[in-house]
Amino acid sequence: MRKAPGSNLTRRRYDRIAPFYDLLEALVERLRFASWRARLWSRIVGNRALEVGVGTGKNIPYYPRDVRITAVDISPRMLERAQKRASVLGLEVELLEMDVQHLAFPNHVFDTIVSTFVFCSVPNPVLGLQELRRVCKPSGKLLLLEHIRPSNRLLGFLFDMLNPLVVRVVGANINRRTMENIRRAGWRIRVEDRLSSDIVRWIEAEP
Ligand SMILES: C[S@@+](CC[C@H](N)C(=O)[O-])C[C@H]1O[C@@H](n2cnc3c(N)ncnc32)[C@H](O)[C@@H]1O
């Protein structure tokens, strides 16, 4: 598997956190994320989809049954949990260990690409988003849930200060300028909704 610089560290961090990941997010999952995930997966188009950064497979229960879905992640321990979740649900999901910054897919194969809370931890998010654009069909779309750096100056500064600690402990950067990164990767943003204050965004984009 080809990996970009920094990916080994990301993999190690998520391998380490995998046994606790669902527990850490249990409350917010119940209160917020679950309904957002259900809504996001109801928006997919076409019959071939890619999920990047599948993690422990929290989106798997919402996968439409009539769409062929391939899911990738850089962390084998997270993928093991996703595999268990798929088995419990009796679903066949193609789960692959892969770096989103170097996807082993040909150009223009997927109708929809979905990713939730991933580009905060990808070492080079613009490179990853460019890869997604490469493998997306010209008529396809990108659906994302992402937490981003707050636009409030004081909060933004606070998040910058806290980021080195947070990224060490949980592997996620809390000060990513993801909207800018999506545009820099060449995507055209069609929908941008603020889901939770200023920080969590629902994003729909076209190549
Ligand atoms: C915060 S978790 C989110 C997991 C899942 N999408 C969810 O909504 O619960 C971030 C996931 O992205 C994966 N990831 C981080 N960098 C990656 C990369 N370069 N390529 C593929 N997966 C990556 C991590 O291993 C982790 O499973």
Can you characterise this structure?
Strands 3-2-1-4-5-7-6 form a seven-stranded mixed β-sheet, sandwiched between helices. The protein has helices spanning 7-24, 26-41, 76-89, 125-135, 153-170, 178-184, and strands at 48-52, 68-73, 94-97, 110-116, 136-147, 188-196, 200-206. The model has no long low-confidence stretch (mean pLDDT 94). The protein has one domain: Vaccinia Virus protein VP39 (Rossmann fold, 3-Layer(aba) Sandwich). It is globular. It has 207 residues and is of the alpha/beta class. The two termini are 25 Å apart. 41% of the residues lie in helices and 24% in strands. It binds S-adenosylmethionine.
> Which series of helices and strands comes N to C?
HHEEHEEHEHHEE
- Proportion of β residues? 15-25%
**Outline:** globular
CATH overall fold name: Rossmann fold
CATH structural class: Alpha Beta
Give a list of the ligands: S-adenosylmethionine
> What is the distance, rounded to the nearest whole angstrom, between the alpha carbons of the first and last residues?
25 Å
Helix content: 40-55%
Q: What's the total number of strands?
A: 7
Radius of gyration: 16 Å
Would you tell me the overall average pLDDT? 94
pLDDT < 50 runs, ≥5 residues? none
Please state how the strands of the largest beta sheet are arranged side by side.
Answer: 3-2-1-4-5-7-6
DSSP helical segment count: 6
Name the CATH architecture: 3-Layer(aba) Sandwich
